[in-house]
Amino acid sequence: MFYRESGQFKTSYAADQAIFPIKQDNWGMVLLLLIAFFAVPYFGTEYFFQAIMIPVLIFALAATGLNILTGYCGQLSLGTGGFMAVGAVACYKLTTGFPEMNFVFVLLLSGIITAGVGLLFGIPSLRIKGFYLAVATLAAQFFLSWLFNKVAWFQNYTPSGTITMPPREVFGIAVTGANADAMDRYLFCLVFVLILAMAAKNLVRGPIGRSWMAIRDMDIAAELIGFRPFQTKLMAFSISSFYVGVAGAMALSLWLGSVETAEAFDINVSFQVLFMIIIGGLGSMMGSFVGAAFIILMPIVLTNVMVGSLGMQAVTAKHFEFMFFGGLIIFFLIVEPHGIARLWQIAKEKLRMWPFPH
Amino acid sequence: MEFLNLVLIAPIADMIEYPSFLAEVVFGGLMSGVMYSLVALGFVLIFKASGVFNFAQGVFALFAALTLVGLMNGTMPFTLEKSLPELPAWAAVIVTFIVMIGLAIAVERIVLRPLVNQDHIIMFMSTIGLAFVLEGLGDTIWGSEVKALDVGIPTGNFLIGEIQIQIFDLWAAGIAAFLVVVLALFFQYTRTGRALRAVADDHQAALSVGIPLKNIWIIVWSVAGLVALVAGIMWGSKSGVQFSLSLIALKALPVLILGGFTSVPGAIVGGLIIGVGEKVAEVYWGPLVDGAIENWFAYVVALVFLLFRPQGLFGDKIIERV
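Above: the input entities. Below: the structure tokens describing the complete assembly.
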């Protein structure tokens, strides 16, 4: 009744190709943005920003990156954690090496550096496919962790081996360092992630995205009709790594502040991001965001319920959390292997009919 | 020149100068290679028969070892109290194997059957979920502290010439070889084995001649459980039963891509190559870059190898059609 496009006529190509062609979607998006920009900062607390909103945004960006590679281009990767580490270390080296550089450029440059590294590790993808490739990307994960741990230059020779982000300002407002307000960091994250997500959305629905999807659906057929597999795959690898790298740089600078690279971006992070896109929906931009929110929120909710309400011991609760987490993932895969994004689509189809049966 | 000398010439010269030390390193590598092969074997069995890349194989080994230790100590499940009679090693192994069979049935019923015909990646993700569940379950039932495991495999060492050999390693290699021979005979000469090979060859053709696919899957997962149990005993006796045991799955992955996902001999040869390569590289080239290259060296070897032979050493040739 409320979600119906009747009476909305498209009179131009631009209107026909809009990201949200239906008015209700448009209004919904505006409402969501209003909430994100005004309601959340107004009601949010320090804990809410630091533990929920900022990590959700950052991981949504990382998931977007992986979704470009895995969901759109069909190349399974388990090296996300390693590439996030590249972004974080690049961000650290750039800020400490060039203190005058604008922080926004630092983030973008970290992304570009990660894109270069991703390009390098993407080269085998021409010969190797499927699970063989997934295992090959693990090489990136382990090698990069080892490199950042062993070579002291990457940590500016600090004895502890942790990298700590110095304070930086954007437009006169502190966004990194110990004194940065959580709300400012959140808003900066939000703007940055929104712009990048918008760019990604437009990439995947344009000619580049179509070439990725052609390669994903059947690479030999795509090659025969004129897509160049090597360039297309490498492009997916580098753009995906760019997003993942920026997410890693943001995780260091805006969220954690100080990390031990090999610990903070280990193989579990790779799996976490992979879970996000599988649960959210492969090949769906919305899926990256919903999946990130789901995977970040679930452990917090579980811990709160078990330790807070049921009074379990923290260790036992941790084990139960593992079980619940794994069980929930299996459950989700069985019930809806195409993720939450697909559920949302089904709901929309149903809404168009409602309240009539046909 | 200095650098080239350090990288190319000095290690080789070292090897030639002290052949007995090289032999010891190679022998050590072979032994850890046997361990990798054992884990990789579990992967290959399941992948061949059901096309599932079972990431939980390492956790299977951990779970089996935890159960074994728990039974041998007489631990009451869920309570961590030692109120049950302590089982002798052989009885505990048998009970654990039964538990692993039960686990295989549960996995087939709850996870695999509803997911039949889904994408490979979905199956893969579900086994990661399974790994999480089993990790939590094992710790909840048996407790998460490090436990010593001793099933009565003799330890100690002796010398052949100047080479020091661990008796435990010999036993491990012997047991692994025995296991492989038994599996090979089982696959080759029994009715069930023939059915398993048929399923591995072609699911649909096997179904159409009346082979019950779901029983086959249970059998395969049980056999993989047995292999995991043996791997768990070996690793557990060597380094204690603890959480890190589940990470050996990660060490088995390069072995898999080196040997090919679908080949049992590939898993064994691949394991030996990776084991030796890793140890030799660590000892001779590791010091140049400050050590600890064991973590990624195997992956890089496998990666370089894959560039020339994408299906691994013994894997089925990948034929793609449009």
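Note for the figure: The radius of gyration of chain B is 21 Å.
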